[in-house]
Structure formats: structure tokens, C-alpha cells
Amino acid sequence: MNSLLKLNEVNTHINQFHILQGVSLEIPIHQVTVLLGRNGAGKTTTLRTIMGLTPASKGQVLWQEKDITALPTYKIAQLGIGFVPEDQGIFPLLTVAENIKIAIQDENDKQTQENLEWILNIFPDLKIAWKRPAGHLSGGQKQMLSIARAFINNNTLLLIDEPSKGLAPIMVHALIEAIQEIKSKTTILLVEQNFYMASRVGETFYILDDGKTVYQGNIKELVENENLKRKHLGIYKKTV
Amino acid sequence: MEQIFVLTLNGLATGMLIFLIAAGLSLIFGLMDVLNFSHGALSMWGAYVGLWIYTGLDQFWLQKLSGFNTSPWYPMVNILDFFVGILGGMLVGALLGWLVEKYMIRPVYGNHVQQILITMGVMLVLSEAIKLFWGSNLIAAPVPLMLDGSWQIGSLVVIKYRLTIIIIGLIVLGALYWLMQKTKIGLYVRAGVQNKEMVQTLGINVRKVFTLVFILGTSLAALGGMLMGPFMNQVYPSMGIEKQLLAFIVVVIGGMGSIFGSAVAGMIVGISEAFMLYFIPDAALAVNVLLMAFVLLIKPSGLFGERG
Questions:
Q1: What fold is seen in the domain A3-80+156-233?
Q2: Using a CB-CB distance cutoff of 8 angstroms, which residues of chain B are in contact with residue A83?
Q3: What are the boundaries of each domain within chain A?
Q4: Is the CB of B200 inside 8 Å of chain A's CB atoms?
């Protein structure tokens, strides 16, 4: 498999808690890989460990075969990894334009300008709210801004943490469409509790349980596998 | 009426001086989450070094050129010496700030108790070092000749040096506004005050921004200290620590990380102090502390701050 990012037996501690206890996964290039699991399984910590925000205490994070486990966060980001955290991480007092501008590493780069135009066409709400403080946006618009900001810099990989959380169903549908468009241009590692969304955008998946990867495969297989969904994700088939 | 004008001018000048010290403190507090108790001592070092350069250069010219003190060029050279002193004081403030951030504060980021203990230690060492170099007595700080005296506008008396302080304060405020609103570094700082973790995930070296902000903050504090000497006509080893208390009040009232908030709060505290010192001198500090308590009650994040 042609993988962009690889995690080898990654262990992460937060204070005295042993959160990741051997996470191994590979992110294939130009695909959407979904990280699934129950609450507390270690999905968010996996993304934070990749970004160096909660560094691994054991194991390796490899980016295009290069060990990046001990790199500081800003250097990991400079490699071309964009991060959309669970709380969106927008700067509420900055305008939408400033939230985007801060992420741009080279303002004269033609590709970045094209990316900006392209992503604003996908999220036209951001164009309308361009000069408004980001704190005034709705939850869905904040999510759009966060994804746009992570995408803008020609990033090769986007780590997106629960984008559908707290959003109205109509917004979830809009996000699904947006991610389906964005995935044509970049690789995505998506953490998602909403199985409907995960199954609509994902291609491969990993299931985490108690800080370990316990299952992996093609998302289409998972959609069909009621036993696996029930056992690891707590999803039961409607019988009515 | 004249008295109110004089007190207001005095209050604005005091407010600008406190703003210069508080602006850096506020940014360091807001962005780096560091409670820097050595800030006042760094400002005092700016005052002493600046004054030493200013008076030293002045003496040098007077000794070198006999009768120079009666020359029409002397006031111009004298004010030039004063501005060289300001630059020297700011450079020393920046250098000391860099050393304190790199060797004292960097190892204890995120640990407030250790930060307080270490920066208090630095404050004591810097204060004692002042006594070692310049002694513990008051040292006269003359106002530059061109800025000495006052203008009479109708029945109003405008003291030149106080007006100069207000103008310098406004220039600094304008420069800080430009830096914060119009440059990429300013954007990083404003974003960092809100969410520094996220700034790192965008590929920005926040540590470098921290160091720059610390250096900027301490050089501004040094500028405030240097301007304060001639304002009080003297410098003394505990002056920085005394003004630090007012700077902390200003930061709390204005809001952490807000330059504009520091400027407004500096004016409020300065004017309040000027009036109280005139009418009820014993209650001057108490009124400012009460003002801070009142703001904390109605808006815990300060008038222009977002973080509580």
C-alpha cells in the first residue's frame, strides 16, 4: 500500500493515564481513512499525537517513511499536515479573512490562491462573512472555516476530528458534499462518530478500542458487517 | 478649571507611562500565560541605564567642549543625548528580557507557581544589582533642556515634558496598533492570545513569537522607566516595583492581551491617581484597587479582554 503516514505501535500518556496503547495504522494516499470507535477509545488522542500536540511516549509516527515522532507541532504542520480539531480551533476575535490569512505560508504562491478560490466556492458562506469576526459564525460555518483553513496551504493530509459534532442534519449533508469534493484534492484522516457520514465519505477504516487498533478494512465491508458494528461501535440494526 | 486641566494632563502623562509598562505585561500575560513579576525591575533597568547614558553623554560634551553649556547648540545636543539614552535603555531592556525569557521563563512554561517564584527572584536580583551599580540613594533625573518648562495657553499651563510623554505614548500606541493589526507577526500574536495550540498547528513557531513579544514588552517597559525618571525628577531602586503594581491593575482592568485595553485602562488609572493624589492623597492607590475590583466584578476578563 502506498501510504502517506504510518503509525507503528504508538503509545501516548496524558499525565498518569495511558491513552494510546499500541495504535498502528497506515493512511493511503488520495483516500479518506476513517477512524472509528466508541467515546474514549483514543481517536482524538491519535490525531493529537500525529500533530505532536500530545507526543507519543513509545512507537513511531512516520511521514513518507521519515520519523516525525519527536518533531515540534509547527514543523509537523509545515510538512503539509492540516489539522481540524474537534472544537474547530477558530480564532473568534479575528475576522474570517484573518483566520484564513494566518494559515497561508506563502501569499504569493499561485497554487494557494487557486486553493483559496476553489475552497470559497465550496463554502460560499465564508465569502459572505469574509470581514466578520469568526466568533459570530454559526457552528456549521465555523466548521467550514476550520476545514478551509486546514486545506488552503496545499496540505497533503488533512486530519479532521468529528466535523459533524453538534451540527444540524442539513449541515451534516452539506459537509458530506464538501468533504467529497475536497477528497479529490488531498488525503484525509477523519475521526467521526456519525457512522452515516463516515460511510458516505470514507474508503478505508480503522476501529480503535481501549487505545488500540482492533480492526481495519474497507468501509463498504463495515457497512455490511452488522456484527462488527454492534461489537465495536454500538450500532444496532433497526428491526422495525 | 485650570487646576482640572493641569491634573488631567498630569493624569494622562502618568497613564501613558503606566501604559508603556503595562502593554508588554499584558501581551506577555495574554499570549504566554506568564505572570512576569520581574517586569517592573526590567523597566527600572531601562530607567537607570537610559539615564546613565543620557547624563554620561551630556557630561562628556560639557567636559570636552569648554563653555558648551552656553552654546545655542547645547539644548539640541542635550535632547539628542536624551533620545540616545532612551534607545540605550530600550536595548538593555530588550537584552535583559531576552535573557530572562530564554534562561528563566522558558523552562517553566505552563507552571504558574514556578513562574511567580522565578520572576520574583529575578525581580529581587535585578533590584539589588541596581544598588550594586548605582547605589541605593535617589539619583537626580533632569528633564532635557528643550522639554523643560511650560507653555502658557491663555490661562492654561501646559508642562512641556508631560505633553511630550503623552505624544510619545500616542506614537507607541499607534505603532503597536499598526504592528498588531497590519503585520503577520501581529496576526500571530492576536491569534496566539486566543488559542496558541492552534497557532502551532498552522505551522507557526509560537516559541519564537513568545520571545519576540517578551523582548518587545520589556523594551517598552524600559522606555516607560526611562521616561518616568525626568517625570519624577529622580530615579530610585524601588520605582519599578511601585509602578508594577499599577501596571498589574491596568492589565486587569484593560483585559489580558489587549493593547487598546491597556491604553484605556492606563488613562483611567493615571487620571484617577492624579486627581486622588491632589484631593485625597492617602486614598490614591485604594481607589485604583477598588476600580480593579469593580471591573473584575462586572467583567472578569477586563474591559477589552476575552480571557477570564
A1: Rossmann fold (3.40.50)
A2: 201
A3: 3-80+156-233, 91-154
A4: yes
